[in-house]
Design a protein that fits this description.
Layout: H1 2-16, H2 25-40, H3 42-45, H4 48-52, H5 57-79, H6 87-100, E1 106-107, E2 120-122, E3 127-130, H7 135-145, H8 152-174, H9 178-192, H10 196-201, H11 208-223, H12 229-244, H13 248-264, H14 270-294, H15 301-309, H16 331-336, H17 344-363, H18 374-377, H19 382-397, H20 418-429, H21 442-476, H22 482-488, E4 494-498, H23 501-507, E5 517-521, H24 528-533, E6 539-543, E7 547-550, E8 560-563, E9 573-575, E10 578-583, E11 591-596, E12 603-610, E13 614-624, E14 630-635, E15 638-644, E16 651-654, E17 658-662, E18 665-675, E19 685-692
Parallel strand pairs: 4-5, 4-6
Antiparallel strand pairs: 1-3, 2-3, 6-7, 8-19, 9-12, 10-11, 11-19, 12-18, 13-16, 13-17, 13-19, 14-15, 14-18
Length: 693
């Protein structure tokens, strides 16, 4: 066991601590100075353990929970302005609203293309679905019901404190360290409070903190043999199942760890059945959502989405190969992978990027995380080994995913290890060598270690706090809460257009029958089809600070204008080619739909809606160029035109108008590659708009 602990510490040091940036000067001076003063000021530091243990356990844990919730809410109110920060959080809230109505997807209003968004998927049931698993949106539903979704983070922060306290107590009892374990547990709760990672993860509506809470509860149940076996088994199964339904990879790693930990306590074979029973509802929820969103029971929604929205079609999968890495979603990181794709060297680099950041986010001074391996390497604690296994296992497992740290959140994929890291670091620090009595006795050593640990975390953590919160505040400043905008300006009926993907996703809800307040994404051309569908509804423009601008415009003339790029990414269905939006100033909406990586036979299906039935002369507008191909265009299954893409330089082009009688509602345009001019360098196409007069 000790050898395993030493090996794990060596792996972590190699991943996280071999670069100079992992050893900030402020942290080194803070740790060294605090440790020296703690050792020299023996009468004072000897009182620290007594002071930390003075309050009754419920009062101490409760006070830490209140402090954690207050810090999270302060970030929500001051930095995030009580609205989601990331696009992921906006989509999670979108999915929570759908589940709050008892469904997996939102009905698509007319015209649907005005409501497509990043990370939304047009399902076979004709509804819009978010692409994330349903576990975390399910947890958000009660907060949606009460109209305060941003309260979810502070509530999770409270739950994390109580779960971490129970984890520390369980690890100490299983290691036979009850008295010292209580002090370590309390120090770990104090250590978590100044964490910038905890503050942001429990402020924005992301799933990582929720997974950390469930993982903590699962490991406690697996190890706590004082609890009845049936109850333990159901809790373990439910937590693992819910994590699987929230974050698939995290669930696999957690399941592997808790199965071994649970089996170590010899619960009996019947416990396996109760574990399965606990997990079953959440696994069923997951496969039902996948069936509704993708049409297949076991096709993950993110896989289906990135097959449509990115290139290569398998770019978002876990593992290695030249096809890994989404060139549209993450062009910068993919470019850094080099020409050979994602392999073991790149995985090592990504793992080091995450591991190097998570220490700073959790304990301020990254080298402090080495203390997490002390309980196993020195005391040979098998219970602590389960916690270490989850920390290291999740870190290495995410080496299979090519995308590294994220803006503001850093190593957010690893945040589920946070409560385990805090408890292990505190236990490792308080295992410092000491004498039975005299100078550097147990109280002196424990007090000096506790002071040094907390001072280093606070001092070294100041820079990340300022950098990340200032960045998040600047990012949020020009944005608005669309629902609050209508309420603040006393608007009871209207269309509010925005270019903010996150704000739109967080506000959108098409389930109410009376759609008096409509939120839509700006298509750059005045949302003509949406205005034709609602000619008497006033339109507003979202402005910073929850303000509105009135969009003064006459009713649009009769006709059809569908910006084809708005079909991407929610509605496009490419096969043998890639589709994405491409900015182009001279295009009618400021963007075109770029078809690339094509070859003869490749095609894209573009569903769209028109508002008013009629007989139209229809055409497709776009741009020719030196790398463009030829495409057959078909409308609703009937041939429409041939798109000739080649020109020596970029130039506007449109197909020959044809007359069609079109009903109000859904239509489908198919563009199929047939080849290219001999002078053309490729088979691309830049399609701009479907126009009817």
């Amino acid at each position: 066991m000790r050898a395993a602990g030493v090996a794990a510490a060596a792996v972590w040091a190699f991943l996280a601590l071999t670069e100079r940036g992992a050893w900030p000067v402020a942290g080194l001076f803070a740790l060294g100075g605090a440790l020296a003063l703690g050792l020299l000021a023996r009468p004072v530091t000897s009182l620290v353990p007594r002071l930390v243990l003075a309050a009754p356990r419920p009062a101490f844990v409760g006070a830490c929970a209140v402090a954690a919730a207050a810090i999270s809410w302060w970030v929500v109110a001051r930095t995030l302005h009580d609205r989601p920060l990331s696009i992921d959080a906006g989509i999670y809230l979108f999915q929570a609203r759908t589940l709050a109505h008892g469904h997996f997807g939102m009905p698509e209003p007319l015209p649907a293309q005005a409501f497509g968004d990043r990370f939304l998927l047009d399902g076979p049931d004709g509804r819009l679905h978010g692409i994330f698993p349903p576990g975390w949106p399910l947890a958000l539903v009660p907060f949606v019901w009460i109209g305060r979704p941003m309260l979810a983070g502070p509530v999770i922060a409270v739950g994390l404190v109580f779960a971490q306290a129970r984890l520390g107590r369980t690890l100490a009892r299983r290691a036979g360290d009850v008295s010292g374990g209580e002090l370590a547990t309390r120090v770990s709760l104090l250590l978590a409070l100044p964490s910038i990672g905890r503050a942001l993860e429990t402020a924005d509506l992301l799933s990582h903190a929720f997974v950390a809470l469930l993982a903590c509860v699962a490991v406690v149940a697996a190890l706590d043999d004082a609890m009845p076996v049936r109850r333990r088994a159901v809790i373990v199964g439910a937590c693992v199942g819910w994590v699987l339904a929230a974050r698939l990879l995290d669930g696999v790693v957690l399941g592997a760890v808790v199965v071994v930990a649970f089996a170590w306590t010899r619960p009996g074979l019947r416990a396996l059945g109760w574990c399965v029973a606990g997990a079953a509802p959440f696994v069923v929820l997951l496969v039902l959502e996948q069936r509704a969103a993708t049409g297949a029971w076991f096709l993950p929604t993110q896989t289906a989405y990135f097959t449509r929205s990115d290139w290569p079609s398998t770019c978002h999968r876990l593992g290695f190969g030249p096809d890994v890495g989404c060139t549209v979603e993450h062009p910068g990181p993919v470019a850094r992978l080099g020409g050979h794709g994602y392999g073991l060297p790149q995985a090592l680099s990504i793992a080091r990027e995450r591991a190097g950041s998570v220490g700073e986010e959790l304990v301020g001074f990254a080298p402090l995380l080495l203390l997490a391996f002390v309980p196993v390497a020195v005391a040979a604690s098998a219970a602590d080994a389960a916690a270490v296994a989850f920390v290291l296992g999740l870190t290495l497992a995410y080496g299979l995913f090519y995308y590294g740290n994220a803006l503001f959140f850093g190593a957010r994929h690893l945040f589920p290890v946070a409560p385990f890291a805090w408890v292990l670091v505190a236990r490792g620090a308080l295992a410092a060598p000491h004498r039975e009595r005299g100078w550097l006795d147990a109280r002196h050593a424990a007090g000096a270690a506790s002071v040094a640990l907390l001072v280093a975390a606070i001092v070294a953590g100041r820079a990340p706090w300022k950098e990340r919160l200032d960045g998040a505040a600047a990012f949020q400043a020009p944005r608005s809460d669309l629902r609050r905008s209508f309420a603040k300006n006393f608007v009871e009926r209207g269309i509010l257009k925005t270019r903010d993907y996150t704000s739109f996703a967080a506000a959108f809800d098409s389930w109410p029958a009376d759609q008096r307040l409509v939120y839509a994404l700006d298509d750059g051309s005045g949302l003509l089809e949406l205005r034709r569908a609602h000619p008497d509804v006033p339109m507003f423009l979202s402005l910073p600070g929850d303000d509105l601008g009135r969009f003064y415009a006459a009713r649009p003339p009769a006709g059809v204008l569908v910006e084809l790029e708005t079909a991407w990414p929610a509605f496009v269905r490419p096969s043998g080619l890639a589709a994405r939006q491409l900015p182009l100033d001279s295009a009618s909406g400021g963007h075109v739909l770029l078809l690339s990586h094509a070859s003869p036979g490749g095609q894209v299906i573009l569903p769209f809606d028109i508002a008013i039935a009629g007989t139209y002369a229809v055409e497709v507008d776009g741009f020719q160029g030196p790398d463009q191909g030829d495409y057959e265009l078909a409308l609703d299954g009937e041939p429409m035109a041939l798109w000739r893409g080649y020109a020596p330089a970029l130039a506007t082009e449109h197909t020959t108008p044809v007359t069609r009688s079109l009903a109000s509602g859904r239509h489908v345009l198919v563009a199929r590659c047939t080849g290219h001019d001999t002078r053309s360098a490729d088979y691309d196409a830049r399609l701009d708009a479907f126009v009817g007069r």
